[in-house]
């Protein structure tokens, strides 16, 4: 039975309810303060828990939004520097400038393994090891960025149930008021219904921003994860190209012969 059922019970069982409700004043600021002052210990405990959860969720949303924004900006700058550099040594020398970017961790770990796998002739002994290192570095960077995200998801899922617990306890107080007063009066059920509505509203107020923030942050996290995968493949391709070395130019006589053949084909 919910708050609506209690009100229906009141109107059906109390013929003089209309006369009693005429004395009820409209809710104002003083009425809200009075309701808050008359909250029971269970409702107060529920509201305190929801307040702590709300502060925690907003802290995670603001801090993660700021860190993701910095990571995205620094990743773009680092990617431009990587694509313009002629040698990997040049990128390694300036990688510290783009440290908030998760791409830097992938590059540093893979480049360190690249130097470790290089033999005396300048060839890579095990290319699969570089691929595993790049994947591991990307996974570690993504895990570091996901920290505290589970708290946000938990708050978004649990806050409504915490508010529902306060709602149930408020309805129970309303029935207790009915039993102690000996009649179905609005004065008897009003405190319990007020507690139920306040805790319900508080649970929704905490859960909605947490769910919306989690969805937005998860979307941005997927974008960064895709960028990590793309950069890892680009880095491995660059290392393979360095192993292949520059393409040797043909001798002058061979080049002249190729030009003659090409001219004959176009005639």
Question: How are the secondary structure elements laid out?
Answer:
Elements: H1 3-13, H2 17-21, H3 29-37, H4 41-84, H5 88-94, H6 102-117, H7 127-145, H8 149-181, H9 186-244, H10 252-266
Helix pairs in contact: 1-9, 4-8, 4-9, 6-7, 6-9, 7-9, 8-9
What would you note in describing this structure?
With 267 residues, the protein is mainly alpha-helical. It has one domain. Helix content is 82%, strand content 0%. The chain contains ten helices and no strands. The protein has helices at residues 3-13, 17-21, 29-37, 41-84, 88-94, 102-117, 127-145, 149-181, 186-244, 252-266. Helix 4 packs antiparallel against helix 8, helix 6 (102-117) packs parallel to helix 9 and helix 7 (127-145) runs antiparallel to helix 9. It is rod-shaped and about 95 Å long.
Quick take:
By secondary structure, the protein is mainly alpha-helical. The protein contains ten helices and no strands. It has one domain (34-244).
